[in-house]
Amino acid sequence: RQQRIEKKLARSQEHGALRQAPTGPLAKWFPLAVVLIFGGWLLGQARMPKYSEDEFNLNAFGELPIVAGGRQQPVDALARNTLRSISNYQTYVDADGKKQPAIRWFLDVATQSEAAENHNVFRIDHPEIVSFFEIERVKGHRYSLAQLRPKASEFHTKVEEIQKKSAKTLSVLERRYVELDQRIRSYTMLVAAFSPPPIPSLPTEEDFKENPTEARQKFMAIGDALMQFSQSLSRMSPPLAVPVGKETDENGDESNGKEVWEPYAIAWSKAFLQTQLMNQPPAETTLAWNKMMSFYGKGDVAGFNKAVADYKTLLETDAPVSIDQKKVEFEAFFNHAEPFYHASVLYVLVFVLSALAWFGWSRPLNRAAFWLTVFTFVVHTAALIARIYISGRPPVTNLYSSAIFIGWGAVIFGMIFEVLYKLGIGNLLAGVAGFSTLVIAHLLAADGDTFVVLQAVLDTQFWLATHVVCITFGYATTFVAGILGVVYVVRGLLTKSLTREVGKNLTRMIYGTLCFAIFFSFVGTVLGGLWADDSWGRFWGWDPKENGALMIVIWNALVLHARWGAMVKDRGLAMLAVVGNIITAWSWFGVNELGVGLHSYGFTDGVLMALGLFVVSQLVVIVA
Prior knowledge:
Elements: H1 2-20, H2 24-46, H3 58-62, E1 65-68, E2 71-74, H4 75-87, E3 91-93, E4 99-101, H5 102-110, E5 122-123, H6 127-132, E6 142-143, H7 145-148, H8 152-163, H9 172-193, H10 205-210, H11 212-234, E7 242-246, E8 259-262, H12 264-277, H13 284-298, H14 301-318, H15 325-337, H16 339-356, H17 362-391, H18 399-421, H19 425-444, H20 461-494, H21 500-536, H22 544-564, H23 570-594, H24 608-623
Antiparallel strand pairs: 1-2, 3-4, 5-6, 7-8
Helix pairs in contact: 2-17, 4-5, 4-9, 8-9, 11-12, 12-13, 13-14, 15-17, 16-17, 16-19, 17-18, 17-19, 18-19, 18-20, 19-20, 20-21, 20-23, 21-22, 21-23, 22-23, 23-24
């Protein structure tokens, strides 16, 4: 029996050596070729498109500054965020079946083009709502405003009835009606912000001669109507496109005044009043915007491109102090490059290469997966730094950025494990963690702008850079241990590759990661208590988010004590690490679903089902 075992072991080692051994120049240069190919692909995707003289220079227009959501950003960002909140996409398909950028849709809407109402951009998933509008259900679930308009009055009546109910009692269908109403309101606010009201004919000199009182009253009525329009639009918090100067004090001095930005529609209305009623010259910025809108509406390509170039020159020579045009233009490039989306694609390729390595030619494939992971991590890191530069904040400020940061931290551990053990497990971990977290971030971005302005209580650089970063690393490391636990269980159940040596190495990875996890989660929770005392005057209030953070600390401590006390061995440690995935997911997302407490800043509607499915999947792994 001993001889048979030794022969079997020898054959296994020989087979493993054949699978591991590189074969010639192809194996040597394959990893470099993979990185160069996909590096070239990424550079090609990030390159800004060039426009000919007979095309609208949409990129140049998209780089213009605008104030929306309480922050300065390029027009391109406003267009992308608004379209994404309406359709869940940053592009749309035109009448000719061609994919078009968000900035073109924005210009069509802003200039009230006939094509705007026919763009299929309103996402409606629920079949009963599609039936309500009496339209045919289509693939992609996106519809035009022209299709919705015939039933608009009935729709708004229905929404008003729904909004009278308590939000907690609304059914799924009723929530979808409210969601569609919010999308339509985003569209109409954009229209209102860039569409000056119609102006009736002004009284002429002959009118003043024949009936001066009536002519004067007509002038005053027009002025009052424009002022009322301005006041009603301002209450909607529209995007502010036009810098019109500074606030003046009682002596007319504007040297210490705050810079004033206005929606284009209001700026145009005031310019009309200044020229027609007050005989004053309007702001040059208003005239510049008027030219751009007018030329685009007429389809005058040359006029539009020149107007955009002239406005950029105007901003360079006489720009408001608050405009950081380089940062605005960089954000426009960042949006076009979409580094996180392309990084998610590369993480999928890392996973594929790692999985193929199980079937043969493992060393070249694992080396290729590792170096592709390193390249993608550099892209991931550069994108994180870019967000810090654009926002002026530490890397984690909301749920979206937390997902990006958790993935980034998990990839670091994957690379470290691959350097130490060279088993391909680190590559697999990096691919799975990087892709899944970036997909979560992509889904969280569907609501619009991801560079949100923080609430006052959160507006502190120190605590954002210490507590939030530390606690997010605690999430990341606990998830890493859980993913390794899943790998241990799945590999042992579905393959014969979980040898004693591989199992021991996986156990070491899980144990080491849990040690980091309890450190970051504990220190992060303590720092959170100090921040709470600084902000609210108490260290702990049994808030749901605080409880969730404490649960992670307690669970990591429980797992480590179970290991130290020999209550669990390798498989038991893996199973307990998988439970950590459930607890961390609850602390990360679950407490936001409660909608209570002081930490409900990242409230997410509709993820409860996804969270439940994730928990079920982890329980299936544990039971199996």
